[in-house]
Write a structure and sequence with these properties.
Order of helices and strands: HHHEEHHHHHHH
Shape: globular
Strand content: under 5%
Largest sheet: 2 strands, antiparallel
Oligomer: single chain
Strand order of the largest sheet: 1-2
Helix content: 55-70%
Number of domains: 1
Number of strands: 2
């Protein structure tokens, strides 16, 4: 099928003269990025990460030395460090919430203290460190991994009782302060169940499987990168050193005997760990306060 031109029957216009466009005498070359440039970028990035690692390691050594000195200072006894922590937390949360939060920390740490005494392990009194929580220093290791797991889980168990008590106060009074404290108590104890040394969950993993230390540490590093936080960074630092030390020594005869746990005991630790984690998660959901503008 053919289509007629709209100018059919009329003389065609004269053709246009063709003038070629001037061509440049020189074309600038196009350079492709060299692989060496990419390698240089990765090298600079690696150097920056290495420098950051050295800085963190130096900070960790100084912080560890400070934590070793603190218990020897008379002014920083349990009651003294509690007051210091209350004052510090009151700057951001108010004095009422600060007092309640420190008391929840005390209940958690007393769980460790009671179980350490039952296991015959010498330990220091609780020491409170503002914005880092509290710590009970063991002067010796428990006799085996099962005892270590019991000591580790005793803190969240008693801490959960403290959180439930504040939830009961909320139900009795309707005061949202107690509800917020209950949420913080559930969160605090659930966070401590992370399978990372030196957290309580890492202690429990000693009786289950030390392989979980590596899994937990990897998850913690991922969380620290995704949500940068100085507290997480400190846990990564100390957790990394402790995990590396114990992982290297796990095959020695002494540590092999230390981690030898009866299947029934291992099952009991797993049951308490999983049940406690579920209960704390449910408690957090029940006490969560939705913010309104």
């Amino acid at each position: 099928m053919a289509f007629d031109s709209p100018n059919s029957g009329q003389p065609a216009p004269p053709p246009l003269a063709y003038r070629p466009a001037p061509t440049p005498d020189y074309y600038p070359p196009t350079y492709a990025p060299e692989p060496t440039e990419r390698r240089s970028l990765w090298k600079r990035l690696g150097s920056a990460l290495a420098a950051l690692g050295v800085l963190i390691a130096k900070l960790g050594v100084k912080l560890k030395a400070l934590l070793l000195i603190l218990p020897k200072l008379k002014i920083l006894t349990t009651s003294g460090s509690m007051l210091v922590s209350m004052a510090a937390y009151s700057l951001i949360w108010g004095w009422q919430f600060a007092i309640g939060f420190v008391l929840l920390l005390l209940v958690h740490e007393m769980g460790h203290v009671v179980q350490l005494r039952r296991e015959g392990v010498r330990a220091s009194a609780p020491l409170f460190i503002p914005f880092l929580g509290a710590v009970v220093g063991m002067k010796q290791m428990p006799r085996n991994a099962a005892a270590e797991a019991r000591v580790g889980l005793a803190g969240p168990v008693l801490g959960s009782v403290g959180a439930l008590a504040t939830l009961g106060l909320y139900e009795a009074t309707g005061n949202n302060l107690f509800r917020a404290l209950a949420f913080m108590g559930f969160f605090l104890n659930l966070f401590n169940l992370l399978p990372v040394l030196p957290l309580d969950g890492g202690r429990a993993m000693a009786a289950l499987t030390p392989w979980m230390w590596l899994v937990g540490f990897g998850l913690l590093v991922t969380a620290t990168v995704a949500f940068p936080n100085p507290i997480l960074l400190i846990i990564v630092l100390f957790g990394g050193m402790e995990t590396l030390r114990r992982w290297r020594a796990r095959k020695s005869p002494e540590m092999a005997a230390y981690h030898r746990v009866r299947p029934a005991t291992r099952a009991g630790v797993a049951l308490v760990y999983i049940g406690l984690a579920i209960a704390l998660a449910v408690g957090m959901g029940a006490t969560h306060l939705h913010r309104t503008l």
